[in-house]
User: What shape does this take?
Amino acid sequence: MNAHRLDNGGLVDRGASLDFSFDGRRMRGLAGDTLASALLANGITLVGRSFKYHRPRGIVTAGASEPNALVTIGSGARSEPNTRATVAELYDGLTAKSQNRWPSLSFDVGAVNGFLSPMISAGFYYKTFMWPAAFWEKVYEPIIRRAAGLGRAVLERDPDGYEKSWAHCDLLVIGAGAAGLMAAVTAARAGLDVILADEGFRPGGGLLGETDVIDNQAAPVFATHIVDELKSLSNVRILTRTTVFGWYDDNVFGAVERVQKHVVEPVSTRPVERVWRIAAARAILASGAEERPLVFGGNDRPGIMTASAISTYVNRYAVTPGRSVAIFTTGPQGYQTAADLVRVGVSVPAIIDVRPGAQDAAPKGVRVIAGGAVVDSSGGLRVDGITVERSGFRETIACDALAMSGGYSPVIHLACQRGLKPVWSEAHAAFLAPDTGPQLTVAGAAAGHGSLSAALADGVSKALGAVADLGRRAAPAPLPQAEAREASEPATLWFVPGARSKAFVDFQNDVTSDDLGLALREGFGHVEHAKRYTTNGMATDQGKLSNINAIGILAGMQGVSPAEVGTTTFRPFYTPVSFGALAGTARDMHASPIRRSPLHGWAEAEGARFVEAGPWYRSSHFPRPGEKGLNDTVNREVLAVRNGVGICDVSTLGKIEVFGADAAEFLNRLYSNAVLKLPVGRARYGLMLREDGIVYDDGTVSRLADTHYLVTTTTALAAGVLSHMEYAAQVLWPDLDVRFVSVSDQWAQMSIAGPKARAVLAPFVEADLSDAAFPALAAGAVTLKGGLRARLFRISFSGELAYELAVPASHGEAVAEALMQAGRTHGITAYGLEALNVLRIEKGFVTHAEIDGRTTPDDLGLGKMLSTQKPDFIGKRLSSRYGLTAADRMQMVGLLPVDKDKAMRAGAHLLREGAKPSTLNDQGWVSSACYSPVVGRHIALAFLKSGRERYGERIVVWDRMHGEEVVAEVVRPVFVDPDNQKING
Assistant: This one.
């Protein structure tokens, strides 16, 4: 067993043993371990398989950038795939499984892909799977889908809870390493409200894995003292196990806290994860720097790790990855790692330093090969040797682990998420954060400060700047003194040529240096194109280790600086965030806000069955005893409205009040038909278009006074229309004197419809409701008997004599109950959404089943509502395009089945009789369909090519989903009262 636990040292609790399992094998770790350190302590170096070639892969890092050690933790509904073992806190009872292998981790059949690598190099998927075409759906796609992904998604219901919270602070410090701790304590001492967020379960960052001395204390001890001081201050909140994943507008940061991800059985009263939205006046990014791996042949074998990771495992976790560890370095980090290994008794056969004149002091007895390079490695399931070349001479060195150090890249992702690009620094051989202004500053290693003393000082300096910006004063305090280390200048090395083995740039996606060369040769040299062509940086680690090396290699191949190549785009999330955390409590019945109409209680008392209609619960139908099903209920409700009177809740319609001297002009520009001269006390049906001439929404405009209008919208677009109006008022016509406000929640509105509607409503209203006094499309304020102020509209969506009565929301249920009670003698019936839909289809009235984002007013048979007199309205110019006025456009028609017993369904396609179903032969589609108890058979509204020219023609309604074909006659889209005699009373 080469990797093992050291007999002493580290920050783990040797008195607290924890049982866990990996691939069914029971093991033990210690409190304070990560899963990765515990696996190494148990001699496990093989932890996974790569995505494409299924090559054996081991642990590379000790942090969030880990590309290889992805495992599934937990079991059943609590199993979580693609968890990075390097940041997964070990707990008693933890169960972990390796991924992307079959039948086992040590023997993976998928490794055969390695032999096929010449045929499946970068971009092969763009050039294959094209022939024969019939194979795509039946052969290629199923194989690709089975091969895709690493872990397995869980299909069981998540038993745990999540939540979201807001937090506000003067200063958010991101990262609890040297710079972050000093920034937080400096600001806290000055009285700022501070939030310190760190992804680790123990604050301290890199200090926990170092042997430096600060103020005569070991670095971990110094970190503990600072954290203890912060915990004692009431103006400080420390969020451990918390990753800040995004920087958004108004200096709001997104963060996810893993509240109970470190226990087997979470407490049900607490969330397992919490998403924080942190509004910070100022923020300091102290996220440190990531050590770059080196790109050489066979650099992916288990046992090959970054040098700083090996130091962390040795110093923090008292674990070594091997007994004979070689070092391959471009700078001083390799020598520090060698010293850490030698100190604990691990053999270091050689330090291979690419710099010919390296001046760093190696541990006593350790051989230094200056000016050399590792060109290849050997081994099967783990490394067992390396090939070193210097000045053309090659030698083989036996080892069971290799530490590689290619320099450091500042972790600046958050600073670049809002569009700013990082800046290349030749001096640092790295990209540095752009100037983000005072709201977010970068400190410590993330700002390019490589030494510990510089990081400590920079954390203090950036905090003092934030304190001053916020008008506070900080008392002078001595700067912690770190033990000085002589550090030589590192070299820059992007790629080591001369290997026979593959040299990997992106470990997880198996992207090699040759793949980048292929991308360049095929014209995909731009960094964004190379990313997509090769998939470099597209894995779960999002290229944290690979991107800078890839940029350097592309730059070298083109003979330019990395500054000219640039970087790919930085976007949230910095590390993966679970859907559960993002959803929070918005799940099951709380997946979206539940809205209930002011008449919900009345409908419930009447026995309504409810359906979700967008955010609303709307009454679908009102079943009565003896009815066998939905059809019986709907037919009864429809006939009651047609022959007597019914009452329906229409409160969910959008209602927007518009005021101002220019209100008429404003609405006239919004609607395609004329609104400007609408008289007071009258309503008008109106159409809103998009800029491209397509119908956006329909509704009514009622003029309640000279400068006071009420606009109604469809339920679905109540919010959308309001936003549309706000845009028009603020951006298109800011000179108009107009104001508006949504009053959708302020009014309960009910439709009383049917031949007996006036007889039911008249006794409740003080006003005269005769046709002469209150004709069709009349609108205005009325007073109900008893003094309640209300609004009444002579508007019908059923085609019957109808009134829409609006009363203050708090009075809605009482008024509806009173109307039902008074209407009993007239046979009044409550009807719901299903009956309303039948009534409107019978009349050919449209909803968003017809206004689906593709139709013009003329398509809907409403071409006359495009005013030719108005100088302008939204959509006027583009509505005259040829494509929107062509004679063969889909036009709305009615359909009647030739066989009266046949049914038609919405979504079915239309074909000529005898035509074979195909896209070429498609004549249109059915938008709405129902059974009409008035007509006595099924009816439908449909869109048919040149439909209005084809009345009387027979058409085939083809429904592949249900395997049905129905022959139907094309008719006008009005099935009941085509002359509108009923609407007019």
